[in-house]
Design a protein that fits this description.
By secondary structure, this protein is of the alpha/beta class. The protein is built from 5 helices and 6 strands, in the order βαβαββαααββ. It is globular, with a radius of gyration of 17 Å.
């Protein structure tokens, strides 16, 4: 038996469209992150950029379970003393739902050069429309276990 190490030149990049309507944010984000990483391919190699492009539509319809909508807080610091900013998930979903989805997916990617290239292949949009029809993306149905 021989171990196959994939090379960057041999990997074909596909485009996928994923619908976020009614999906639970964390479970949805983990599966999208796996596609961006390339873990769905049989020749997955952790040190090689193997992932595909992912277009997320209906970002505003992704949901949080429990009381996370009210209790979850996103923090940002300006770098100056007293510059800590806090925003609740409820406010951020109303103002910028793309950012909530993007941050959840980015948090599940590697924090290095490879992860930064993976982040560039993620496209998140509010609503059903996206400007990437020229790439002929395939609709991808995620397998998610939903809580009742």
């Amino acid at each position: 038996m021989k171990t196959v190490m994939a090379r960057k030149e041999d990997i074909a990049k596909n485009w996928y469209v994923v619908d976020g309507e009614g999906m639970i944010l964390g479970r949805f984000a983990s599966q999208v992150a796996a596609i961006l990483r390339g873990k769905h391919k049989p020749v997955f190699t952790p040190s090689v950029d193997m992932g595909d492009f992912v277009i997320v539509i209906n970002a505003e319809k992704v949901r949080l379970t429990g009381k996370k909508v009210l209790n979850k807080v996103y923090y940002h610091h300006s770098g100056y003393p007293g510059g800590l900013k806090a925003t609740t998930a409820e406010k951020l979903i109303k103002e910028n739902p793309e950012k909530v989805v993007r941050m959840a997916i980015w948090g599940m990617l590697p924090k290095n050069k490879l992860g930064r290239t993976m982040r560039q292949r993620l496209k998140v949009y509010r609503g059903n429309e996206h400007p990437h029809s020229a790439q002929k993306p395939q609709m991808l149905k995620l397998k998610l276990k939903l809580n009742p």
